[in-house]
Write a structure and sequence with these properties.
heterodimer; A: 2 domains; six-stranded mixed β-barrel; 15 helices; 10 strands; 52% helix; B: six-stranded mixed beta sheet; 7 helices; 34% helix
Chain lengths: 411, 224
Protein backbone atom coordinates (compact mmCIF):
# COMPACT_ATOMS: atom_id res chain seq x y z
CA UNK A 1 0.00 0.00 0.00
CA UNK A 2 1.34 3.42 -0.86
CA UNK A 3 2.18 5.64 2.12
CA UNK A 4 -0.25 8.29 0.96
CA UNK A 5 -3.05 5.69 0.98
CA UNK A 6 -2.09 4.59 4.51
CA UNK A 7 -2.31 8.24 5.55
CA UNK A 8 -5.70 8.51 3.87
CA UNK A 9 -6.93 5.48 5.82
CA UNK A 10 -5.78 7.16 9.06
CA UNK A 11 -7.48 10.37 8.03
CA UNK A 12 -10.75 8.59 7.22
CA UNK A 13 -10.54 6.72 10.48
CA UNK A 14 -10.13 9.79 12.69
CA UNK A 15 -12.62 11.92 10.77
CA UNK A 16 -15.30 9.26 10.55
CA UNK A 17 -15.95 9.47 14.27
CA UNK A 18 -14.55 12.68 15.69
CA UNK A 19 -16.31 12.25 19.00
CA UNK A 20 -14.75 8.83 19.51
CA UNK A 21 -11.33 10.32 18.76
CA UNK A 22 -11.97 13.05 21.31
CA UNK A 23 -13.08 10.54 23.96
CA UNK A 24 -10.07 8.39 23.21
CA UNK A 25 -7.71 11.30 23.60
CA UNK A 26 -9.44 12.56 26.75
CA UNK A 27 -7.20 10.43 28.96
CA UNK A 28 -4.16 11.86 27.23
CA UNK A 29 -5.48 15.41 27.53
CA UNK A 30 -6.09 15.04 31.26
CA UNK A 31 -2.84 13.14 31.81
CA UNK A 32 -0.78 15.80 30.08
CA UNK A 33 -2.59 18.60 31.88
CA UNK A 34 -2.17 17.03 35.32
CA UNK A 35 1.52 16.32 34.86
CA UNK A 36 2.19 19.89 33.72
CA UNK A 37 0.19 21.17 36.69
CA UNK A 38 2.04 19.10 39.29
CA UNK A 39 5.45 19.99 37.87
CA UNK A 40 4.47 23.67 37.72
CA UNK A 41 3.34 23.72 41.35
CA UNK A 42 6.56 21.98 42.42
CA UNK A 43 8.69 24.45 40.50
CA UNK A 44 6.82 27.39 41.99
CA UNK A 45 7.47 26.03 45.50
CA UNK A 46 11.18 25.67 44.82
CA UNK A 47 11.34 29.14 43.34
CA UNK A 48 9.62 30.62 46.39
CA UNK A 49 12.23 29.18 48.72
CA UNK A 50 15.00 30.39 46.44
CA UNK A 51 13.44 33.89 46.32
CA UNK A 52 13.04 34.14 50.01
CA UNK A 53 16.68 33.53 50.68
CA UNK A 54 18.18 35.13 47.62
CA UNK A 55 18.64 38.34 49.56
CA UNK A 56 20.75 36.65 52.17
CA UNK A 57 24.53 36.72 51.88
CA UNK A 58 26.20 33.51 52.92
CA UNK A 59 28.48 35.61 55.13
CA UNK A 60 25.55 36.98 57.12
CA UNK A 61 24.80 35.88 60.66
CA UNK A 62 21.39 36.34 62.23
CA UNK A 63 21.24 37.31 65.91
CA UNK A 64 17.66 36.94 67.12
CA UNK A 65 15.99 36.53 70.50
CA UNK A 66 15.90 32.85 71.24
CA UNK A 67 12.42 31.43 71.52
CA UNK A 68 11.38 28.78 73.96
CA UNK A 69 10.97 28.23 77.67
CA UNK A 70 14.67 27.77 78.35
CA UNK A 71 15.20 31.51 78.22
CA UNK A 72 14.76 32.94 81.69
CA UNK A 73 16.47 36.29 81.60
CA UNK A 74 14.90 39.40 80.18
CA UNK A 75 18.25 40.94 79.52
CA UNK A 76 18.60 42.35 76.05
CA UNK A 77 21.39 43.42 73.82
CA UNK A 78 21.01 47.12 73.09
CA UNK A 79 21.41 48.54 69.65
CA UNK A 80 24.59 50.40 70.64
CA UNK A 81 26.06 47.27 72.19
CA UNK A 82 25.30 45.34 69.07
CA UNK A 83 26.57 47.99 66.72
CA UNK A 84 29.84 48.13 68.67
CA UNK A 85 30.63 44.54 67.68
CA UNK A 86 32.64 45.27 64.52
CA UNK A 87 35.05 47.45 66.55
CA UNK A 88 35.88 44.78 69.08
CA UNK A 89 35.34 41.59 67.10
CA UNK A 90 37.98 40.70 64.60
CA UNK A 91 35.80 38.61 62.25
CA UNK A 92 32.71 40.82 62.17
CA UNK A 93 32.62 43.47 59.49
CA UNK A 94 29.32 45.19 60.15
CA UNK A 95 26.09 44.81 62.09
CA UNK A 96 22.63 45.67 60.90
CA UNK A 97 19.67 46.21 63.18
CA UNK A 98 15.98 45.91 62.46
CA UNK A 99 12.68 46.05 64.24
CA UNK A 100 9.23 45.25 62.97
CA UNK A 101 5.96 47.09 63.38
CA UNK A 102 2.61 46.27 61.86
CA UNK A 103 0.81 49.36 60.67
CA UNK A 104 -1.51 50.84 58.17
CA UNK A 105 0.23 52.81 55.47
CA UNK A 106 -1.73 55.42 53.55
CA UNK A 107 -1.15 57.68 50.58
CA UNK A 108 -4.09 59.98 50.04
CA UNK A 109 -7.23 57.86 50.10
CA UNK A 110 -5.47 54.53 49.50
CA UNK A 111 -4.27 52.56 52.48
CA UNK A 112 -3.22 49.03 53.29
CA UNK A 113 -1.93 47.00 56.21
CA UNK A 114 1.77 46.40 55.91
CA UNK A 115 4.83 45.25 57.83
CA UNK A 116 7.16 48.16 58.53
CA UNK A 117 10.79 47.50 59.27
CA UNK A 118 12.96 50.01 61.09
CA UNK A 119 16.48 49.45 59.84
CA UNK A 120 19.94 51.00 59.72
CA UNK A 121 22.21 51.37 56.71
CA UNK A 122 24.18 48.24 57.44
CA UNK A 123 20.97 46.17 57.50
CA UNK A 124 19.98 47.44 54.06
CA UNK A 125 23.48 46.68 52.87
CA UNK A 126 23.65 43.14 54.24
CA UNK A 127 20.20 42.20 52.98
CA UNK A 128 20.85 43.79 49.55
CA UNK A 129 18.03 46.30 49.52
CA UNK A 130 18.55 48.27 46.31
CA UNK A 131 16.58 51.38 45.34
CA UNK A 132 14.90 51.36 41.95
CA UNK A 133 13.99 55.04 42.22
CA UNK A 134 15.31 57.59 44.74
CA UNK A 135 17.75 56.60 47.46
CA UNK A 136 17.85 54.80 50.77
CA UNK A 137 18.05 56.79 54.01
CA UNK A 138 21.35 56.99 55.87
CA UNK A 139 22.36 56.41 59.51
CA UNK A 140 22.61 60.19 59.77
CA UNK A 141 18.94 60.47 58.77
CA UNK A 142 18.20 57.96 61.47
CA UNK A 143 20.09 59.98 64.11
CA UNK A 144 18.28 63.12 62.98
CA UNK A 145 15.00 61.20 63.40
CA UNK A 146 14.12 62.11 59.83
CA UNK A 147 10.76 60.71 58.91
CA UNK A 148 11.84 59.13 55.65
CA UNK A 149 10.31 56.00 54.15
CA UNK A 150 11.47 53.55 51.53
CA UNK A 151 8.69 51.48 49.98
CA UNK A 152 8.80 47.92 48.69
CA UNK A 153 7.86 47.51 45.04
CA UNK A 154 4.39 46.07 45.60
CA UNK A 155 3.60 48.64 48.28
CA UNK A 156 4.50 51.55 45.99
CA UNK A 157 2.69 49.92 43.12
CA UNK A 158 -0.43 49.60 45.24
CA UNK A 159 -0.39 53.01 46.92
CA UNK A 160 0.43 54.95 43.76
CA UNK A 161 -1.67 52.88 41.46
CA UNK A 162 1.10 51.60 39.24
CA UNK A 163 2.94 54.91 38.88
CA UNK A 164 5.89 53.84 41.01
CA UNK A 165 8.25 56.64 40.11
CA UNK A 166 5.65 59.21 41.21
CA UNK A 167 5.95 57.90 44.76
CA UNK A 168 9.24 59.74 45.30
CA UNK A 169 8.88 62.87 47.50
CA UNK A 170 5.23 62.03 48.21
CA UNK A 171 3.93 61.86 51.74
CA UNK A 172 2.67 58.65 53.30
CA UNK A 173 1.03 58.18 56.69
CA UNK A 174 2.46 55.53 59.01
CA UNK A 175 1.08 55.20 62.56
CA UNK A 176 -0.59 58.54 61.99
CA UNK A 177 2.66 60.38 61.27
CA UNK A 178 3.63 61.66 57.85
CA UNK A 179 6.74 60.29 56.21
CA UNK A 180 8.43 61.43 53.00
CA UNK A 181 9.07 58.69 50.48
CA UNK A 182 12.74 58.93 49.53
CA UNK A 183 13.03 55.69 47.61
CA UNK A 184 11.30 52.67 46.14
CA UNK A 185 13.06 49.32 46.17
CA UNK A 186 13.79 47.32 43.09
CA UNK A 187 11.46 44.40 42.69
CA UNK A 188 12.77 41.24 44.23
CA UNK A 189 10.19 39.54 42.15
CA UNK A 190 10.09 35.80 41.79
CA UNK A 191 7.30 33.51 40.98
CA UNK A 192 4.31 35.65 41.80
CA UNK A 193 4.78 38.17 39.05
CA UNK A 194 3.83 41.76 39.77
CA UNK A 195 1.28 41.64 42.52
CA UNK A 196 -1.43 44.23 42.55
CA UNK A 197 -2.06 43.78 46.23
CA UNK A 198 0.10 43.86 49.32
CA UNK A 199 0.36 40.92 51.66
CA UNK A 200 0.78 42.04 55.27
CA UNK A 201 2.18 38.62 56.24
CA UNK A 202 4.72 38.42 53.47
CA UNK A 203 8.38 38.16 54.34
CA UNK A 204 9.30 39.61 50.98
CA UNK A 205 10.73 43.14 50.89
CA UNK A 206 8.36 43.78 47.99
CA UNK A 207 5.51 43.81 50.47
CA UNK A 208 7.18 45.94 53.18
CA UNK A 209 8.03 49.53 53.91
CA UNK A 210 11.28 50.63 55.59
CA UNK A 211 11.89 53.57 57.91
CA UNK A 212 14.98 54.61 59.93
CA UNK A 213 15.53 52.43 62.97
CA UNK A 214 15.59 55.29 65.48
CA UNK A 215 12.26 56.54 64.16
CA UNK A 216 10.68 53.10 64.20
CA UNK A 217 11.70 52.37 67.78
CA UNK A 218 9.48 55.22 69.02
CA UNK A 219 6.45 53.35 67.77
CA UNK A 220 7.23 50.19 69.66
CA UNK A 221 5.72 49.94 73.08
CA UNK A 222 7.34 49.61 76.52
CA UNK A 223 10.71 51.17 75.88
CA UNK A 224 13.39 50.28 78.43
CA UNK A 225 16.68 51.86 79.55
CA UNK A 226 18.57 50.97 76.42
CA UNK A 227 15.91 52.17 74.06
CA UNK A 228 14.94 48.62 73.22
CA UNK A 229 11.52 47.37 74.09
CA UNK A 230 11.19 43.93 75.51
CA UNK A 231 8.12 43.46 73.42
CA UNK A 232 9.58 44.87 70.29
CA UNK A 233 11.04 42.44 67.88
CA UNK A 234 14.55 43.68 67.51
CA UNK A 235 16.98 41.51 65.66
CA UNK A 236 20.45 41.97 64.38
CA UNK A 237 22.29 40.70 61.41
CA UNK A 238 26.06 40.63 61.37
CA UNK A 239 28.26 40.30 58.34
CA UNK A 240 31.42 38.22 58.64
CA UNK A 241 34.54 39.36 56.82
CA UNK A 242 34.37 36.46 54.45
CA UNK A 243 32.99 32.97 54.16
CA UNK A 244 35.83 31.43 56.16
CA UNK A 245 35.35 33.76 59.06
CA UNK A 246 31.65 32.89 59.56
CA UNK A 247 32.38 30.15 62.10
CA UNK A 248 34.87 32.13 64.25
CA UNK A 249 32.56 35.15 64.00
CA UNK A 250 29.67 33.15 65.49
CA UNK A 251 31.89 32.13 68.43
CA UNK A 252 33.06 35.71 68.92
CA UNK A 253 29.50 37.02 68.85
CA UNK A 254 28.31 34.44 71.38
CA UNK A 255 31.20 35.35 73.74
CA UNK A 256 30.48 39.03 73.23
CA UNK A 257 26.80 38.56 74.15
CA UNK A 258 27.74 36.54 77.23
CA UNK A 259 30.21 39.21 78.34
CA UNK A 260 27.73 42.00 77.73
CA UNK A 261 24.47 40.71 79.15
CA UNK A 262 25.62 37.73 81.20
CA UNK A 263 24.04 34.95 79.19
CA UNK A 264 24.61 33.75 75.66
CA UNK A 265 21.41 31.67 75.55
CA UNK A 266 19.12 34.68 75.19
CA UNK A 267 20.07 35.05 71.55
CA UNK A 268 20.36 32.42 68.93
CA UNK A 269 23.19 33.10 66.58
CA UNK A 270 22.85 31.33 63.24
CA UNK A 271 24.61 31.76 59.96
CA UNK A 272 22.70 32.15 56.70
CA UNK A 273 24.15 28.91 55.46
CA UNK A 274 22.35 26.84 58.07
CA UNK A 275 19.16 28.87 57.68
CA UNK A 276 19.35 28.21 53.95
CA UNK A 277 20.15 24.57 54.56
CA UNK A 278 17.06 24.03 56.66
CA UNK A 279 14.94 25.88 54.14
CA UNK A 280 16.39 23.76 51.39
CA UNK A 281 15.68 20.65 53.43
CA UNK A 282 12.06 21.76 53.68
CA UNK A 283 11.96 22.40 49.97
CA UNK A 284 13.47 18.99 49.33
CA UNK A 285 10.81 17.32 51.45
CA UNK A 286 8.21 19.22 49.50
CA UNK A 287 9.57 18.26 46.13
CA UNK A 288 9.89 14.65 47.25
CA UNK A 289 6.22 14.81 48.12
CA UNK A 290 5.38 16.35 44.76
CA UNK A 291 7.42 13.72 42.96
CA UNK A 292 5.42 11.07 44.81
CA UNK A 293 2.22 12.79 43.70
CA UNK A 294 3.56 13.10 40.17
CA UNK A 295 4.36 9.38 40.05
CA UNK A 296 0.83 8.56 41.15
CA UNK A 297 -0.52 10.96 38.53
CA UNK A 298 1.68 9.34 35.88
CA UNK A 299 0.48 5.89 36.91
CA UNK A 300 -3.18 6.82 37.00
CA UNK A 301 -3.14 8.76 33.74
CA UNK A 302 -0.99 6.07 32.14
CA UNK A 303 -3.47 3.38 33.12
CA UNK A 304 -6.34 5.58 31.94
CA UNK A 305 -4.72 6.15 28.58
CA UNK A 306 -3.88 2.45 28.17
CA UNK A 307 -7.37 1.40 29.12
CA UNK A 308 -9.12 3.63 26.63
CA UNK A 309 -6.77 3.07 23.72
CA UNK A 310 -6.44 -0.65 24.21
CA UNK A 311 -10.19 -1.10 24.25
CA UNK A 312 -10.58 1.19 21.24
CA UNK A 313 -8.09 -0.81 19.20
CA UNK A 314 -9.31 -4.19 20.44
CA UNK A 315 -12.77 -3.30 19.20
CA UNK A 316 -11.25 -3.01 15.78
CA UNK A 317 -9.81 -6.50 15.74
CA UNK A 318 -12.50 -7.47 13.21
CA UNK A 319 -11.46 -4.60 10.97
CA UNK A 320 -7.90 -5.94 11.15
CA UNK A 321 -9.28 -9.38 10.23
CA UNK A 322 -11.04 -7.94 7.17
CA UNK A 323 -7.87 -6.16 6.07
CA UNK A 324 -5.90 -9.39 6.45
CA UNK A 325 -8.48 -11.47 4.60
CA UNK A 326 -8.30 -9.21 1.56
CA UNK A 327 -4.54 -9.45 1.60
CA UNK A 328 -3.15 -6.56 3.65
CA UNK A 329 0.28 -7.52 5.00
CA UNK A 330 1.01 -7.03 8.67
CA UNK A 331 3.42 -4.08 8.28
CA UNK A 332 0.76 -2.10 6.41
CA UNK A 333 -1.81 -2.70 9.16
CA UNK A 334 0.72 -1.84 11.86
CA UNK A 335 1.77 1.35 10.07
CA UNK A 336 -1.84 2.46 9.91
CA UNK A 337 -2.54 1.82 13.58
CA UNK A 338 0.79 3.29 14.70
CA UNK A 339 0.10 6.47 12.76
CA UNK A 340 -3.40 6.68 14.14
CA UNK A 341 -2.24 6.17 17.74
CA UNK A 342 0.46 8.78 17.19
CA UNK A 343 -2.01 11.24 15.76
CA UNK A 344 -4.55 10.79 18.57
CA UNK A 345 -1.83 10.94 21.23
CA UNK A 346 -0.22 14.04 19.76
CA UNK A 347 -3.62 15.69 19.42
CA UNK A 348 -4.42 14.88 23.07
CA UNK A 349 -0.98 15.91 24.29
CA UNK A 350 -1.07 19.27 22.56
CA UNK A 351 -4.62 19.93 23.71
CA UNK A 352 -3.64 19.05 27.29
CA UNK A 353 -0.64 21.37 27.09
CA UNK A 354 -2.87 24.10 25.68
CA UNK A 355 -5.30 23.53 28.50
CA UNK A 356 -2.49 24.02 31.03
CA UNK A 357 -2.23 27.63 29.81
CA UNK A 358 -5.30 28.38 31.92
CA UNK A 359 -3.65 26.92 35.04
CA UNK A 360 -2.09 30.19 36.27
CA UNK A 361 -5.44 31.90 35.89
CA UNK A 362 -7.41 29.10 37.55
CA UNK A 363 -4.92 28.84 40.42
CA UNK A 364 -4.97 32.59 41.00
CA UNK A 365 -8.24 31.96 42.84
CA UNK A 366 -6.35 29.76 45.30
CA UNK A 367 -3.20 30.08 47.41
CA UNK A 368 -1.37 27.64 45.17
CA UNK A 369 1.27 29.20 43.01
CA UNK A 370 2.17 27.79 39.65
CA UNK A 371 5.21 28.30 37.47
CA UNK A 372 4.91 27.18 33.86
CA UNK A 373 8.03 25.31 32.79
CA UNK A 374 9.34 23.78 29.62
CA UNK A 375 10.36 20.72 31.66
CA UNK A 376 6.79 20.17 32.79
CA UNK A 377 5.33 20.61 29.32
CA UNK A 378 7.89 18.25 27.79
CA UNK A 379 7.38 15.68 30.54
CA UNK A 380 3.59 15.94 30.28
CA UNK A 381 3.41 15.70 26.50
CA UNK A 382 6.26 13.20 26.28
CA UNK A 383 4.90 10.78 28.83
CA UNK A 384 1.29 10.90 27.67
CA UNK A 385 2.11 10.68 23.99
CA UNK A 386 4.53 7.78 24.44
CA UNK A 387 2.06 5.94 26.68
CA UNK A 388 -0.68 6.63 24.14
CA UNK A 389 1.35 5.38 21.21
CA UNK A 390 2.38 2.22 23.05
CA UNK A 391 -1.15 1.51 24.28
CA UNK A 392 -2.61 2.09 20.84
CA UNK A 393 0.06 0.12 19.04
CA UNK A 394 0.35 -2.90 21.32
CA UNK A 395 -3.20 -4.27 20.76
CA UNK A 396 -2.77 -3.71 17.02
CA UNK A 397 0.43 -5.77 17.13
CA UNK A 398 -1.47 -8.50 18.92
CA UNK A 399 -4.52 -8.37 16.67
CA UNK A 400 -2.51 -8.33 13.46
CA UNK A 401 -0.60 -11.39 14.65
CA UNK A 402 -3.81 -13.41 14.87
CA UNK A 403 -4.86 -15.74 12.10
CA UNK A 404 -7.32 -13.81 9.88
CA UNK A 405 -10.16 -16.13 10.88
CA UNK A 406 -9.55 -15.50 14.61
CA UNK A 407 -9.44 -11.74 14.06
CA UNK A 408 -12.64 -11.92 11.99
CA UNK A 409 -14.47 -13.92 14.65
CA UNK A 410 -13.33 -11.63 17.46
CA UNK A 411 -16.24 -10.40 19.51
CA UNK B 1 -7.76 -26.49 -18.31
CA UNK B 2 -5.63 -25.57 -15.32
CA UNK B 3 -6.21 -26.62 -11.75
CA UNK B 4 -7.05 -23.85 -9.32
CA UNK B 5 -7.43 -25.83 -6.09
CA UNK B 6 -5.65 -29.05 -5.34
CA UNK B 7 -6.02 -30.35 -1.78
CA UNK B 8 -4.74 -33.73 -0.65
CA UNK B 9 -5.46 -35.43 2.63
CA UNK B 10 -6.21 -32.32 4.63
CA UNK B 11 -6.58 -32.66 8.40
CA UNK B 12 -7.72 -29.93 10.75
CA UNK B 13 -8.65 -30.06 14.41
CA UNK B 14 -9.39 -27.50 17.11
CA UNK B 15 -8.52 -27.61 20.78
CA UNK B 16 -6.17 -30.11 22.38
CA UNK B 17 -6.20 -33.02 24.78
CA UNK B 18 -9.65 -34.15 25.92
CA UNK B 19 -11.42 -31.25 24.21
CA UNK B 20 -9.78 -31.89 20.85
CA UNK B 21 -12.25 -31.88 17.98
CA UNK B 22 -11.28 -33.30 14.60
CA UNK B 23 -13.11 -31.17 12.07
CA UNK B 24 -11.57 -32.33 8.79
CA UNK B 25 -10.39 -35.93 8.62
CA UNK B 26 -8.51 -36.31 5.40
CA UNK B 27 -10.19 -34.18 2.75
CA UNK B 28 -9.00 -34.25 -0.84
CA UNK B 29 -10.47 -31.87 -3.36
CA UNK B 30 -9.71 -30.58 -6.84
CA UNK B 31 -11.29 -27.61 -8.55
CA UNK B 32 -10.47 -26.77 -12.15
CA UNK B 33 -10.48 -23.30 -13.65
CA UNK B 34 -13.91 -22.23 -14.84
CA UNK B 35 -15.86 -24.46 -12.48
CA UNK B 36 -18.79 -23.34 -10.32
CA UNK B 37 -18.67 -25.62 -7.31
CA UNK B 38 -21.00 -25.71 -4.33
CA UNK B 39 -19.70 -27.25 -1.13
CA UNK B 40 -22.81 -28.53 0.61
CA UNK B 41 -23.11 -29.77 4.13
CA UNK B 42 -25.07 -29.38 7.35
CA UNK B 43 -23.75 -27.13 10.08
CA UNK B 44 -20.89 -28.78 11.95
CA UNK B 45 -19.89 -30.82 8.91
CA UNK B 46 -16.63 -28.92 8.53
CA UNK B 47 -17.58 -27.06 5.33
CA UNK B 48 -16.83 -23.63 6.78
CA UNK B 49 -13.48 -24.82 8.08
CA UNK B 50 -12.73 -26.18 4.62
CA UNK B 51 -13.62 -22.83 3.14
CA UNK B 52 -11.32 -20.99 5.59
CA UNK B 53 -8.46 -23.30 4.65
CA UNK B 54 -9.09 -22.80 0.92
CA UNK B 55 -9.12 -19.04 1.54
CA UNK B 56 -5.89 -19.13 3.57
CA UNK B 57 -7.49 -17.39 6.51
CA UNK B 58 -6.87 -20.43 8.70
CA UNK B 59 -3.96 -22.87 8.84
CA UNK B 60 -3.83 -26.51 7.79
CA UNK B 61 -2.70 -29.16 10.31
CA UNK B 62 -1.50 -31.63 7.70
CA UNK B 63 -1.94 -32.37 4.03
CA UNK B 64 -0.91 -30.50 0.92
CA UNK B 65 -2.62 -27.60 -0.77
CA UNK B 66 -1.71 -25.99 -4.07
CA UNK B 67 -3.62 -22.91 -5.19
CA UNK B 68 -3.25 -21.79 -8.80
CA UNK B 69 0.07 -23.61 -8.97
CA UNK B 70 1.48 -22.27 -5.67
CA UNK B 71 2.26 -24.82 -2.95
CA UNK B 72 1.35 -23.02 0.24
CA UNK B 73 3.28 -25.35 2.54
CA UNK B 74 5.57 -23.48 4.95
CA UNK B 75 5.41 -20.12 3.25
CA UNK B 76 5.80 -16.71 4.86
CA UNK B 77 2.90 -14.63 6.16
CA UNK B 78 3.79 -12.10 3.51
CA UNK B 79 3.23 -14.65 0.76
CA UNK B 80 -0.08 -15.77 2.28
CA UNK B 81 -1.22 -12.14 2.31
CA UNK B 82 -0.13 -11.81 -1.30
CA UNK B 83 -2.07 -14.94 -2.33
CA UNK B 84 -5.19 -13.72 -0.52
CA UNK B 85 -4.82 -10.40 -2.28
CA UNK B 86 -4.06 -11.62 -5.83
CA UNK B 87 -5.62 -15.06 -6.12
CA UNK B 88 -8.73 -15.14 -3.91
CA UNK B 89 -11.77 -12.91 -3.90
CA UNK B 90 -13.54 -13.53 -0.61
CA UNK B 91 -17.27 -13.07 -0.12
CA UNK B 92 -18.55 -13.53 3.44
CA UNK B 93 -21.97 -14.28 4.81
CA UNK B 94 -21.76 -11.17 7.01
CA UNK B 95 -20.29 -9.08 4.14
CA UNK B 96 -17.34 -7.93 6.30
CA UNK B 97 -17.21 -4.46 4.86
CA UNK B 98 -15.32 -1.75 6.75
CA UNK B 99 -18.04 0.42 8.24
CA UNK B 100 -16.18 3.72 8.25
CA UNK B 101 -15.29 3.52 4.54
CA UNK B 102 -17.75 4.23 1.74
CA UNK B 103 -18.53 1.63 -0.91
CA UNK B 104 -15.85 2.97 -3.23
CA UNK B 105 -12.99 2.71 -0.73
CA UNK B 106 -14.13 -0.74 0.39
CA UNK B 107 -13.88 -1.89 -3.21
CA UNK B 108 -10.62 -0.01 -3.84
CA UNK B 109 -8.85 -1.58 -0.86
CA UNK B 110 -7.59 -4.80 -2.52
CA UNK B 111 -6.09 -2.69 -5.32
CA UNK B 112 -4.59 -0.12 -2.93
CA UNK B 113 -3.05 -2.98 -0.96
CA UNK B 114 -1.46 -4.15 -4.21
CA UNK B 115 0.11 -0.72 -4.46
CA UNK B 116 -2.03 0.70 -7.24
CA UNK B 117 -2.29 4.44 -7.54
CA UNK B 118 -5.36 6.12 -6.13
CA UNK B 119 -6.47 7.20 -9.60
CA UNK B 120 -6.31 3.81 -11.25
CA UNK B 121 -7.85 2.08 -8.20
CA UNK B 122 -10.74 4.51 -8.29
CA UNK B 123 -11.38 3.99 -12.00
CA UNK B 124 -11.36 0.19 -11.66
CA UNK B 125 -13.44 0.20 -8.46
CA UNK B 126 -16.07 2.46 -9.99
CA UNK B 127 -16.31 0.22 -13.07
CA UNK B 128 -16.74 -2.82 -10.84
CA UNK B 129 -19.42 -1.11 -8.74
CA UNK B 130 -21.15 -0.21 -11.99
CA UNK B 131 -21.04 -3.86 -12.94
CA UNK B 132 -22.78 -4.98 -9.71
CA UNK B 133 -25.38 -2.27 -10.26
CA UNK B 134 -24.19 0.20 -7.60
CA UNK B 135 -22.55 2.79 -9.82
CA UNK B 136 -24.61 5.55 -8.27
CA UNK B 137 -24.09 4.44 -4.66
CA UNK B 138 -20.31 4.55 -4.47
CA UNK B 139 -20.22 7.28 -1.84
CA UNK B 140 -22.62 5.44 0.51
CA UNK B 141 -21.32 3.81 3.64
CA UNK B 142 -22.33 0.18 4.38
CA UNK B 143 -24.90 1.28 6.99
CA UNK B 144 -26.62 3.39 4.33
CA UNK B 145 -27.08 0.34 2.07
CA UNK B 146 -29.49 -2.60 2.21
CA UNK B 147 -28.24 -6.13 2.88
CA UNK B 148 -28.36 -7.04 -0.80
CA UNK B 149 -26.51 -3.87 -1.74
CA UNK B 150 -23.87 -4.52 0.90
CA UNK B 151 -23.38 -8.02 -0.46
CA UNK B 152 -22.97 -6.57 -3.93
CA UNK B 153 -20.30 -4.18 -2.60
CA UNK B 154 -18.58 -7.23 -1.11
CA UNK B 155 -18.83 -9.01 -4.47
CA UNK B 156 -17.36 -5.97 -6.20
CA UNK B 157 -14.49 -6.06 -3.71
CA UNK B 158 -13.93 -9.75 -4.52
CA UNK B 159 -14.04 -9.09 -8.28
CA UNK B 160 -12.05 -5.90 -8.55
CA UNK B 161 -8.62 -7.52 -8.40
CA UNK B 162 -9.41 -10.06 -11.15
CA UNK B 163 -8.49 -12.96 -8.88
CA UNK B 164 -8.72 -16.41 -10.49
CA UNK B 165 -10.86 -17.77 -7.62
CA UNK B 166 -14.04 -16.39 -6.02
CA UNK B 167 -14.79 -17.93 -2.62
CA UNK B 168 -18.24 -17.35 -1.22
CA UNK B 169 -19.27 -18.41 2.29
CA UNK B 170 -23.07 -18.69 2.54
CA UNK B 171 -23.34 -15.61 0.31
CA UNK B 172 -27.12 -15.59 0.49
CA UNK B 173 -27.40 -16.56 4.15
CA UNK B 174 -28.11 -13.06 5.40
CA UNK B 175 -30.41 -12.10 2.52
CA UNK B 176 -34.08 -12.66 1.70
CA UNK B 177 -34.75 -15.29 -0.96
CA UNK B 178 -35.44 -12.85 -3.80
CA UNK B 179 -32.21 -10.91 -3.21
CA UNK B 180 -30.41 -14.19 -2.70
CA UNK B 181 -31.64 -15.42 -6.06
CA UNK B 182 -30.34 -12.25 -7.73
CA UNK B 183 -26.91 -12.84 -6.22
CA UNK B 184 -26.92 -16.46 -7.43
CA UNK B 185 -27.90 -15.36 -10.91
CA UNK B 186 -25.00 -12.95 -10.84
CA UNK B 187 -22.64 -15.77 -9.86
CA UNK B 188 -23.89 -17.83 -12.80
CA UNK B 189 -23.23 -14.91 -15.13
CA UNK B 190 -19.75 -14.52 -13.72
CA UNK B 191 -19.11 -18.22 -14.16
CA UNK B 192 -20.35 -18.02 -17.74
CA UNK B 193 -17.66 -15.40 -18.31
CA UNK B 194 -15.08 -17.88 -17.06
CA UNK B 195 -14.70 -17.09 -13.36
CA UNK B 196 -14.02 -19.99 -11.02
CA UNK B 197 -16.44 -19.91 -8.10
CA UNK B 198 -16.49 -22.00 -4.96
CA UNK B 199 -19.57 -21.46 -2.82
CA UNK B 200 -20.32 -22.87 0.63
CA UNK B 201 -23.92 -23.54 1.57
CA UNK B 202 -26.09 -25.73 3.76
CA UNK B 203 -29.07 -25.34 1.41
CA UNK B 204 -29.44 -28.08 -1.29
CA UNK B 205 -31.64 -25.79 -3.39
CA UNK B 206 -28.95 -23.11 -3.55
CA UNK B 207 -26.27 -25.72 -4.15
CA UNK B 208 -28.25 -27.11 -7.06
CA UNK B 209 -27.64 -23.89 -8.98
CA UNK B 210 -23.91 -24.61 -9.15
CA UNK B 211 -22.47 -26.86 -11.84
CA UNK B 212 -20.99 -29.33 -9.40
CA UNK B 213 -21.86 -30.20 -5.80
CA UNK B 214 -19.36 -31.49 -3.28
CA UNK B 215 -21.01 -32.93 -0.17
CA UNK B 216 -19.20 -32.65 3.12
CA UNK B 217 -20.35 -34.65 6.11
CA UNK B 218 -18.63 -35.29 9.39
CA UNK B 219 -15.31 -33.96 8.19
CA UNK B 220 -15.15 -36.04 5.05
CA UNK B 221 -16.15 -35.54 1.43
CA UNK B 222 -18.94 -37.91 0.44
CA UNK B 223 -18.54 -39.75 -2.85
CA UNK B 224 -20.67 -38.21 -5.58
Amino acid sequence: MRPVEILRSVFLSVTSNKFRVFLTSLGIIIGTFTIILVVGIGKAGEAQVADQYSRLSVESITIARARGSGVTTTAVLSKDEALAMPESLQNVESVGVSTRISSEIAAGAISTAVTIQGINEAYADITHLEPLYGTLFTDEDSLMRSRYAVLGYNVANYLFDGDIEAAIDQTVLIKGASFTVVGVLDRIGGSGGISTSVSADSTSADDMAFIPYDVAIKYTSGTTRSGVSSAAQVSFVALANDIDSVKPAITEIQEYIEDTIGSADVYSVTDAGSVLESAQATARTMSALLIAVAIIVLLVSGIGIMNVLMVAVQERTREIGILKSIGAARPVILAEFLLEATFISAFGGLLGAGLSAIAPWALSFTDISFMPSVDGILLGIGFSVITGIISGFYPAVKASGLKPIDALNYE
Amino acid sequence: MSTIIEMKDIYKSYGRGEGKVDVLKGVSLTVEAGEFVAILGPSGSGKSTLMNLIGLIDTIDSGTYTIDGVDIHNQSDRLYARIRNRKIGFIFQKFNLIAKYNALRNVELPLLIQGESSHSAKTRALATLERVGLGDRWQHRPNQLSGGQQQRVAIARALVGNCPLILADEPTGALDSKTGQEILKFFQDLNAEGKTIVMITHDPHIASQAKRIIRVEDGLIQPA
